[in-house]
Specification:
The chain is of the alpha/beta class. The chain folds into 2 domains: 171 residues, Nitrogenase molybdenum iron protein domain (Rossmann fold, 3-Layer(aba) Sandwich), CATH 3.40.50.1980; 173 residues, Rossmann fold. Helices cover 38% and strands 16% of the residues. It contains 14 helices and 14 strands. The strands form 4 sheets. It has a 5-stranded parallel sheet. Strands 10-8-12-13-14 form a 5-stranded mixed sheet, with helices on both faces. A two-stranded antiparallel ribbon has the order 1-2. It is globular, with a radius of gyration of 21 Å. 47% of the residues are buried.
Amino acid sequence: MAGLLRVGLAALCLLFAPVPTEAKQVTDIAGRSVTIPDRVERIIIGEGRYIPALAILDRDDPVGRIVGMMGEYEAVDPATYAKYRAAFPKIAQIARIGRASRESFSLESAITAQPQVAIFGLDGHGPDTRSGEVIRALEATGTVVVFVDFRSDPLVNTPKSMLLLGQVLGREAQAEAFVAAWKQALATVTDRLARAAPAPTRVFIESRVGLDAACCETMTRGMMGRFVTAAGGVNIAEALVPGEAGVVNLEWLVANPPDVYIGTAIGNAAASGDKPWLALGADVPAPVARMTLLRSLTRPGIAGLPPVRDGRAHAIWHHFYNSPFNVAAVQAFATWLHPTLFADLDPAATLRDLHARFQPFPIDGAYWISAK
């Protein structure tokens, strides 16, 4: 059976190989030098949540070149997906080449879509650098595989990834404009910290609050764990969790309390009434967001943490961990970790401005909230 499958895929490779065009050389985030067509009109994406990054480069039609995408966007962030669907209805007709896991990726569907370029992440929900068989099969059709990263090392790789996508899609000017704004927003935090050199604040991030009854999933050396360091903090879970993310038990957290507690929100306004999740993001009013945070802070063990008792407990939209707009979250972290030093900083204004300049519709809803 496996042999027949390989033969079938080989036939598809020959049948659907793209017609070569003029080409240019780029280096992707995995350090691979690849040759891409001069005019890219057909792409597949390894995560649907890359669409906002594509919209930075083409606000008029961010989905126009996509011929295949993973289907996790509408599942994990339905409110934002709904806004894209309302603005660009053809997003619903794009072939889904998988669901929300690397294992669900359909190589046959991807090849049938006849992409010129496949945009995958270094790590994540779709095919990544570990997906050697998928990469080889796509390359055999003439599809160029390009790796980006907004997740594993976001504050290093977000500007690199946006400039790379600008090269791939012929939108260099748009990419450079975004990266300039992104770097300026980050510098408002990092430059001030460098001058003031405050004592670092001890922080704990509880990831995906309410998804599991147990506590506590967290992020450390990747994803939003990187935001803690950039905002002048120490992520206390790094002492126990060696990778990007992991779990610490509640007893350890109670015995080693942080100065600041941050929970990440996977819920939306529709789910806030009957799910134990934190709700933040598109269409979530601030009072609803605060209600879900206060509710979550009553859990045994969490309720007794010093930052919860002292009003230094906060919640943030979970999907900043994999978003080019992550710099707004870094600013929010900075105001929580060093409130006096960053008293004049307005992260919400930063997020609104970035969306107004680089997204096809204005932002609404609360993307972070504080208990106090």
